[in-house]
Design a protein that fits this description.
- By secondary structure, this protein is α/β, with parallel strands linked by helices.
- The chain is built from 13 helices and 14 strands.
- 39% of the residues lie in helices and 14% in strands.
- The strands form four sheets. It has a seven-stranded mixed sheet with strand order 2-8-7-6-5-3-4, with helices on both faces.
- A hairpin with a 5-residue loop joins strand 10 and strand 11.
- It is globular, with a radius of gyration of 21 Å.
């Protein structure tokens, strides 16, 4: 009898986490490594948020909470959705989870039956297809290339919908491409979705606060009639530099929130009570630090795009959001590196780059879009300049 369940054969370990771990191991072994693989802000959590957590500990708020989160935090989430997005959610339509990833897991595992399809524009975050597959669903990957700004078109969405479509998953701004949708672009997608009332929508807005040159919008905001079949997900990790605090939250119809709550009650139960207290302050307190971080990211984006576009064989579009670039490296493939390694795939490129130049990035195939690679520019300027200089040297050495 096999020990490991067959369902685990449907998924892979997170490749972004795997590359980060590889870089960390090399650094521990004494190598000079610059890791640009993880999607994690380099800023410290804002002081007011940390103080709120400390105060909660001193008040003794260290016990279990409701599975779906404290009423105070659910009210704060509802206020955030109203203030920032113009969406009215009641506290009972809110669920707080241990990070955005658990929100996604809860929603998909609670709803997908064997054979149900989930439409996912690619490039996409590494976990969407695996969570769908783990739930015994079928990921339907729709390639969206740089010629269309890495964004799905209404025509592509229409063509991908079948009688088996259960979900449409949209990440805006997108990890890994940084592509950000305008309200007009979302309206075009909403018009398609209005013609298909059985399709549910998962709107992953985790990078909402990090946009450059466009105004953020979300699907229910541009088409309120979609609210009764949409999960609008957000969290504290990216906007407030709170990745380790593990706070994600979502607004959705009560029926679905109850199902997600039921599933979560048999997995993690509530997320940390201390993190929840900190999240209330993050969402309702002063927001100056968010804009300060956003401006720094925008400057770093411009720095990285400019330097990568000077690397031989690399074409790097300018993203509208998040803190990633997703350069096209097809001009580097089919060549040999300075140390004699043959570079046939984007994974070959990233492994050789790590081994020869000490720069960790994640290959495009991990995001269902080969021929590219992802760099996170959520690190300091000096490291970014050094890393980009090394990438230029690596590409120059390809023959």
């Amino acid at each position: 009898m096999h020990l490991i369940a067959d369902r685990l054969d449907r998924i892979s370990p997170s490749l972004t986490i795997a590359m980060t771990a590889k870089a960390r191991a090399l650094k521990a072994a004494g190598r000079d490594i610059i890791s640009l693989a993880a999607g994690e802000p380099d800023f410290d959590t804002p002081r007011n948020v940390k103080d709120a957590a400390i105060a909660a500990i001193e008040r003794g708020e260290t016990k279990y909470t409701d599975v779906a989160g404290t009423m105070a935090l659910r009210k704060a989430c509802a206020e955030k959705f109203k203030r920032d997005n113009g969406i009215d959610y009641k506290p009972e339509e809110i669920l707080v989870a241990t990070g955005g990833k658990q929100v996604i897991f809860d929603a998909l595992v609670a709803t997908i039956n064997p054979g149900d399809e989930a439409i996912i524009p690619a490039p996409c975050w590494v976990s969407y297809p695996d969570i769908v597959a783990l739930a015994e669903g079928k990921p339907v990957i729709v390639p969206c290339g740089p010629n269309q700004g890495f964004k799905i078109t209404p025509e592509q969405l229409e063509a991908a919908i079948t009688p088996k479509t259960k979900w449409f998953i949209l990440n805006n701004p997108c990890n890994p491409s940084g592509a950000g949708y305008t309200a007009a672009e979302l309206k075009g997608l909403a018009e398609v979705l209005m013609r298909h009332p059985d399709v549910w929508i998962f709107s992953d807005d985790i990078y909402e606060k990090l946009t450059y040159g466009i105004e953020f919008a979300t699907l229910v905001q541009v088409e309120p009639r979609l609210k009764d079949r949409t999960v609008t997900m957000n969290g504290c990790s990216k906007a407030y530099a709170m990745t380790g605090w593990r706070i994600g939250f979502a607004g959705a119809p009560v029926q679905l929130i109850k199902a997600m709550d039921k599933l979560q009650s048999q997995s993690t139960s509530n997320t940390s009570s201390i993190s929840q207290a900190a999240a209330i302050e993050a969402l309702t307190g002063q927001q100056d630090s968010v804009e300060e971080m956003r401006k720094v990211y925008e400057r770093r984006r411009d720095l990285v795009v400019g330097m990568l576009n000077k690397a031989a064989g690399v074409r790097c579009p300018t993203p509208e959001g998040a803190f990633y670039v997703f350069p096209d490296i097809r001009g580097c493939l089919g060549k040999t590196s300075a140390s004699g390694k043959r570079i046939e795939t984007d994974e070959d490129f990233c492994l050789a780059l790590l081994e020869e130049q000490g720069v960790a990035a994640v290959h495009g195939a991990a995001f269902m879009f080969p021929g590219h690679f992802r760099i996170s520019y959520a690190t300091d300027d000096a490291s970014l300049k050094d890393a980009c200089t090394r990438i230029q040297a690596f590409c120059a050495g390809l023959k």
